[in-house]
Amino acid sequence: MQQVGVGRPASWGGAQPLTRSLAHLFNRERLGLAGLLGATALLYLWALGASGWANSFYSAAVQADTKNWVAFLFGSFDASNFITVDKPPASLWVMDLSVKLFGLNSWSILVPQALEGVATVALLFLTVRRVFGSAAGFIAGAALAATPVAALMFRYNNPDALLVLLLVGAAYALVRALDGGHSTRWLLLAGALVGTGFITKMLQAFLVLPAMVLVYLALGPPGLWRRTLQLLAALGSLLVFGGWWVALVQLWPASARPYIGGSQNNSELNLIFGYNGFGRLTGNETGSVGASGPGGWGPTGLDRLFLPSFGGDISWLIPAALVGAAALLWLTWRAPRRDPVRASALLWLGWLLVTGLTFSLAQGIIHPYYTVALAPAIAALVGGGAVLLWRVREQLLPRLLLAAAVLLTSIWSWVLLERVPGWLPWLAPLVLVLGVAACLGLLGVTLLPRRLAAAVAGLALAACLVGTGAYTIATAAQAHTGAIPPAGPAQAASLGNSSGGPGPGTGFRRRFGGGFPGQRGSGHGGFPGFGSGGFPGFGGGSTGSSGTRSPGFGSGGFPGFGGGTGAGQGGFPGFRGGGPGGGGSGLGGLINSGTPSAALTAALRQDAGDYRWVLAVVGADNAAGYQLASGDPVMAIGGFNGTDPAPTLAQFQAMVSRGEIHYFIASGLGGGGGDASRITSWVEEHFSATTIGGARVYVLASR
């Protein structure tokens, strides 16, 4: 095969400062980019307030952090600085500043995430355009915006939105460094962005590093020792931007800062390497609940991203991305060492493979929305591969690869759409028809006049993007709350969620949930309210569509959690929208919050200034609803899961004796004999309860 010309488009020219990049685009490109970003903003901002507090765990922390500078610095859950959230605070800081400017409401919390999504699409466009041209940049940007999990996370207040923006920014900086102009400066910027990603979501930010380091070391500007020294400098930048906050936490006296949520010894290092670190890979996560241990969080394997619980979120364009990556490497296999197309292809492919394999094989806590980190790499490979293959379509093999990519993508879109019974039943066959027609058109595109050839290209793009685009719009049309939001239309809830343990069934039907068209079925595993198997009492529904519950937890889900009913609440008496619970009258449960009654909210606010915490309750999501409603600090005993050893019974007793806590509500969480369980038993034994607004409340102190 003769080497084809696939280098940087002549229209781009040499290296240009980032601040001038958009100014040098042609008018048509500026208009196109404005249209792409405008459509993305509309998609990510439309009816954003419908999700309310979204993930109330983080919303409550934002509320607290805007009231106290120590809480802001450490990412505390409550303004009285009892415990932090179980992630670093960088993503909270963005929301904190927004709330400081515009007040506390769902828009001021969620709009920053949407704007981060628009910025991510813009940066990906610039990164891909620099190597492959503007057409590839537009395709990549559209593919990213039309990825369901991207629409989910860029409309939600989890840390993933900021993380993805920072990593795409680091990829842009690396591509600029590969140009050879001011390489050291760009590498320092890349290191700083990845380091900031670390204080956004810890070790997940480092999954892009193998590809970045190897690509620059092998394909960067001349001089191996020079490249090595530059990478060491970038490492220093990463350590400074990623390590300053960790060092501050470790050096700050523990008695003068909040407990580190998610850790077992009040150490940020324990959180980094334990609960949020290697435990995610091995499944051995001290402080986790329920599905702990290897394999407890759903089936693992190379096909995990294609299973019902993950497939609708991220897998739509993976076939096209893999074909595109193979094509790019094939087209550049004889190119010079510093060929920008090959370097970019290896960068995005390495990103996709390392991150994808980590998610596929991880045996610890993992949720489908994590896969938003894959979306930029998939989109870049789709855009770059499609445009370069189109440029050499006169040759038979590129046409075959284009046709194969389109046909595989349309068939897989058909499979994914057929998994959602009752939702737009005409869409799956339409996508398949478009794919077949585009495939045939691509095979004979060289025989067509220019306008018809362009129409075939448009048809191919439609075949690949219509399915994922419709699923993305359906995602944006749904209100999302709780700790584990699902992508897709409401009917997709029956596909399950990998956060639950595996359900019944064997072989293909167990893993793919009925899978291929003509064999509709539901996936297994997950939380009720997401539709199948899993852990009852966590957000609606008593059983999944499989009619079974997770092994080992009985009909009440986790021990002490109660069965729970009600859409999205899993609630307890005293809370609107909740159904009957077990083991107490606390708020929604481990992964959902809710709104306390007006009577209880008024009681919490009364004389609130006389207490350090107006209420103590087990579990941070339980506490979040009370804190957001009252506006006053609520102690989340045991942190997010209710399993952190904070406070101990002795510490809690001392706080009560000092009159620092007004009320206590038994939530039903924290079973199993830990500190939270001992505290609950002690309160129930030594204090009498009263009923306020339907909730059973223990008065620990009075003024």
Fold topology:
Blueprint: H1 27-45, H2 56-65, H3 69-74, H4 90-102, H5 106-132, H6 134-145, H7 148-153, H8 160-179, H9 183-201, H10 209-219, H11 224-251, H12 268-282, H13 308-314, H14 318-331, H15 340-361, H16 375-391, H17 396-418, H18 427-443, H19 450-477, H20 507-512, E1 575-576, E2 595-596, H21 598-605, E3 613-618, H22 620-630, E4 634-637, H23 649-657, E5 661-665, H24 675-686, E6 689-692, E7 695-699
Parallel strand pairs: 3-4, 3-5
Antiparallel strand pairs: 1-2, 5-7, 6-7
Helix pairs in contact: 1-5, 1-6, 2-4, 2-22, 4-5, 5-6, 5-8, 5-16, 6-16, 8-9, 8-15, 9-11, 10-11, 10-15, 14-15, 14-16, 14-17, 15-16, 17-18, 17-19, 18-19
Relevant terms:
703 residues; globular; 5-stranded mixed sheet; 51% helix; 24 helices; mainly alpha; two-stranded antiparallel ribbon
Describe the structure.
Helix content is 51%, strand content 4%. The protein is built from 24 helices and seven strands. The strands form two sheets. It has a five-stranded mixed β-sheet with strand order 4-3-5-7-6, with helices on both faces. Strands 1-2 form a two-stranded antiparallel sheet. A hairpin with a 2-residue loop joins β6 and β7. α2 crosses α22, α5 runs parallel beside α16 and α8 packs antiparallel against α15. It is globular and about 85 Å long. The N terminus is likely disordered.
Tally of strands: 7
Structural class: mainly alpha
Mean pLDDT: 84
Distance between the termini: 86 Å
**Tally of helical runs:** 24
Quick rundown:
With 703 residues, this protein is mainly α. It contains 24 helices and seven strands. The radius of gyration is 26 Å and the shape is globular.
